[in-house]
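Hey, does this match?
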Amino acid sequence: MKKKERLIPVGTKIFWGQTVMGILWIGVGLTGMFDNLICNILKILLLMAATVVLVKVIRIGRIGDDGDEMAEYNYTKAQAKAGGALHMVLCIASIVFALGFGLVQNMDISWTRIISHIFFVLMGIYNLLIGRFFRKLEAE
């Protein structure tokens, strides 16, 4: 017997798949930048939570076939706006980094640890922006 597939609204799927995942990825990135037991435990817990949320979003169902074209349009528009906003964040961060690099060059900082975890923060910011822009577009 075939299991009945549940349908969920676009907004719910985007909230969990983008906004919540964005918050979790930012948390993983920030906790990964520090090397101590508490941050390592938090990072593992956040990664586990991200995995659970991602599996739930994938398994919870698909978006209804009735076709909410406006929500799909708003999602595409939110992705484009988030891409532009992230581009601006990266430009500003590179300017600040270039200006401040000489000041922190002599400090004892694990640059490889920080740079390797910035990916998670940037991915989280992108997901969070998509969720935020989508919510704003849907409210209009």
Helices lie at 10-32, 37-59, 69-104, 111-139. The beta strands are 7-8, 62-63. The chain has a mean pLDDT of 84.
